[in-house]
Amino acid sequence: MYRRRLADLDDELAEAERWNDTERAGRLRVERDFLIRELTAAMGLSGRPRRLGSDTERARLNVTRAIRTAIARIRDRVPSTGAHLDTAIRTGARCSYRGEHRAP
């Protein structure tokens, strides 16, 4: 089921790029990247299912995914801001923003 959706997304993305439909292509890339991240996160070593972590770890992962999804949406609308946020926001045990700060 997931492989089929990934193949469909690849086909739709190729079509959107041929038609220069950047908005559609951006939405498809976000969905494709999200699906790949989810599938990768679900797999452990040698393709074995990953053991579930603690509630804290699951919450951390959910926050990270939400932040990355939001940045991807921003990147679709304002690429320069999305690129900045990609490099400035750090996630992990703690989240932080490390952008340039300018004195007023």
How is the topology of this model organized?
Blueprint: H1 2-18, H2 22-42, H3 55-77, H4 79-88, E1 89-90, E2 96-97
Antiparallel strand pairs: 1-2
* Coarse shape: flat
What helical percentage do the residues reach? Answer: 55-70%
The side-by-side strand order for the widest beta sheet comes to 1-2
**Are there runs of 5+ residues with pLDDT below 50, and where?**
none
What integer is the average pLDDT? 84
- Note the beta-strand portion: under 5%
How many distinct helices? 4
| Structure summary, number of beta strands | 2
Order of helices and strands: HHHHEE
SSE-based structural type = mainly alpha
Number of domains: 2
Distance between the termini: 53 Å
**Radius of gyration (Å):** 17 Å
Query: What is the makeup of the main sheet?
Result: 2 strands, antiparallel
Task: Describe what this molecule looks like in 3D.
- The chain has 104 residues and is mainly alpha-helical.
- The chain has a two-stranded antiparallel sheet.
- It has helices at 2-18, 22-42, 55-77, 79-88; strands at residues 89-90, 96-97.
- The protein is flat, with a radius of gyration of 17 Å.
- The mean pLDDT is 84.
- It has 2 domains: 1-51, no CATH class; 53-96, no CATH class.
Main features:
two-stranded antiparallel ribbon, mainly alpha, 4 helices
Task: Summarize the structure in short.
This protein has 104 residues and is mostly helical. It is built from four helices and two strands. Helices cover 68% and strands 4% of the residues.
